[in-house]
Amino acid sequence: MPCCLLDLFCLVATEDIDPDRASELERQIVRQQRWTQPIAVHKRDFFVMDGHHRLTVAHRLGLDRIPAVLLDYGEVDVEAWRKGEIIKPADIIAMARSGRRFPAKTTRHIFDPPLPLCDISLSDLRSVRNGHETSGTRPLVVRA
């Protein structure tokens, strides 16, 4: 499960966020000046499976890229956070393609094994490295 860097603006959010949680996470990341946990992204459609608060923080901080792990639903289980609700991968894919979002904490993705950690300076996520340019339409993928 390798970690890579993705062009921030090619990613699609599928859930709303809790603004208080995003602010708390932003303070933590700014204090450390390091990005230590990648988000999970669907490898074909580039929607966020897990990490919506981190995506929000990356936008707030003006980052160009974000550490991510590319996965699909053959590798990840999903369930609803709320009792009595049923969420299937097809529901999430349809939501991503519609441009709409689920309410915060609707989907729970289960990673086995857990996502790897990373350790990347925020300054490395702001500037383009190694001569790579963002494409505008396809995610920039740089292996970390």
Your description of this structure?
The protein has 144 residues and is an alpha+beta fold. 26% of the residues lie in helices and 25% in strands. It is built from four helices and nine strands; from the N terminus they run βαβββαββαββαβ. It has helices at residues 19-32, 52-60, 89-98, 122-126, and strands at residues 3-7, 34-35, 39-42, 48-50, 65-71, 76-80, 107-111, 120-121, 141-143. The strands form three sheets. A five-stranded mixed beta sheet has the order 4-3-5-1-9, covered by helices on one side. β3 and β4 form a beta hairpin. α1 packs across α2 (52-60). The longest helix is centred in the N-terminal third of the chain and has 14 residues, at 19-32. The protein is globular.
Topology at a glance:
Blueprint: E1 3-7, H1 19-32, E2 34-35, E3 39-42, E4 48-50, H2 52-60, E5 65-71, E6 76-80, H3 89-98, E7 107-111, E8 120-121, H4 122-126, E9 141-143
Parallel strand pairs: 3-5
Antiparallel strand pairs: 1-5, 1-9, 2-8, 3-4, 6-7
Helix pairs in contact: 1-2
How does the major sheet shape up?
Answer: 5 strands, mixed
**Would you tell me the structural class of the helices and strands?**
alpha+beta
In what range is the share of β-strand residues?
25-35%
- How many beta-strand segments? 9
Gyration radius, rounded: 15 Å
Uncertain spans: 129-138
Strand order of the largest sheet: 4-3-5-1-9
Q: First CA to last CA: what distance?
A: 12 Å
Helix-strand string: EHEEEHEEHEEHE
Mean pLDDT: 89
DSSP summary: helix tally: 4
Helicity, as a percent range: 25-40%
Described by the principal axes of the CA atoms, the overall outline is: globular
Quaternary structure of the protein:
single chain
